[in-house]
């Protein structure tokens, strides 16, 4: 009888896979070498001396860790670099999380290795459309009340129509934001994943921005293609000295 009850419990209440982002799985170590850990957020390396992330991840002092899989361990692949300058978009507005994008200029250039490399940014012509399946990764919570285990996790998520976010978030702006995550699936980012990249066709198309507190998708991502002029202009403006 006990065996039968145990079998029923397994069938009715299946366990989630160990090490989920929410509804995902642990990433293969260093398979996303562009990922950056900022302590409270994620980010991604777009130039040897610049990391892109969300503006709401701003803090007065930030150390970026590159080449990490398990942030609770000191891995030989890791590079810790202080942030020289945190540059939030000048029109960032919170709330309603408009223009939620920030560039972090590093104190020194990252050393590019098998575990540390750049991710491509889209062109202004590149577009994401509803139904596209993209991916996102982070070191955030594994469930609403479960902290991350220190390892990088990833999940595949689907681009949604703008109307699904317009109906849920009153400040959603489809020009500068992307609606991401099938509301019928428990697959999403959550606290601690902010600032990480939405990867579509090997390009960073979005930045994890915000969502509701229940972690139910869809959630809102910053649309990178709309900020390319600002990104390029800012990186040209702030250049490290040759001696660095």
How does the major sheet shape up?
7 strands, antiparallel
Low-pLDDT runs of 5+ residues are: 1-20
How many alpha or pi helices?
3
State the end-to-end distance. 70 Å
**Rg from alpha-carbon coordinates:** 18 Å
Strand content: 25-35%
The appropriate CATH architecture of the largest domain is Beta Barrel
Instruction: Provide mean pLDDT, rounded.
Output: 87
CATH top-level class of the largest domain = Mainly Beta
Backbone shape = globular
The CATH topology name of the largest domain reads Thrombin, subunit H
Compact summary:
With 244 residues, this protein is mostly beta strands.
Task: Describe this entry's structure for a reader.
The chain is mainly beta. It folds into two domains: 33-118 and 228-237, Beta Barrel (Thrombin, subunit H), CATH 2.40.10.10; 133-225, Trypsin-like serine proteases (Thrombin, subunit H, Beta Barrel). Helix content is 11%, strand content 27%. The strands form two sheets. A seven-stranded antiparallel sheet has the order 1-9-8-11-12-13-10. A hairpin with a 4-residue loop joins strand 2 and strand 3 (42-47). The chain is globular and about 45 Å long.
């Amino acid at each position: 009888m006990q065996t039968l009850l145990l079998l029923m419990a397994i069938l009715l209440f299946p366990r989630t896979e160990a090490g989920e982002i929410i509804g995902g799985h642990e990433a293969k170590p260093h398979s996303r070498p562009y990922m950056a850990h900022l302590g409270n957020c994620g980010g991604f390396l777009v130039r040897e001396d610049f990391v892109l992330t969300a503006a709401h991840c701003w803090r007065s002092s930030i150390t970026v860790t590159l080449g990490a899989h398990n942030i609770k361990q000191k891995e030989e692949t890791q590079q810790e670099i202080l942030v020289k300058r945190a540059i939030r978009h000048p029109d960032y507005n919170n709330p309603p999380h408009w223009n939620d994008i920030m560039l972090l200029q590093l104190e020194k250039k990252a050393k590019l290795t098998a575990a540390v490399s750049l991710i491509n940014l889209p062109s202004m012509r590149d577009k994401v459309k509803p139904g596209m399946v993209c991916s996102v990764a982070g070191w955030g919570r594994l469930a609403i009340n479960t902290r991350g285990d220190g390892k990088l996790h990833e999940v595949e998520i689907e681009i949604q129509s703008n109307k699904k976010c317009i109906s849920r978030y009153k400040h959603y702006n489809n020009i500068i934001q992307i609606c991401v995550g099938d509301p019928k699936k428990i697959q999403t980012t959550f606290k601690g994943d902010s600032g990480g990249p939405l990867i579509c066709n090997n390009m960073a198309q979005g930045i994890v921005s915000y969502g509701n507190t229940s972690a139910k998708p869809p959630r809102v991502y910053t649309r990178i293609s709309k900020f390319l002029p600002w990104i390029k202009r800012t990186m040209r403006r702030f250049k490290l000295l040759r001696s660095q």
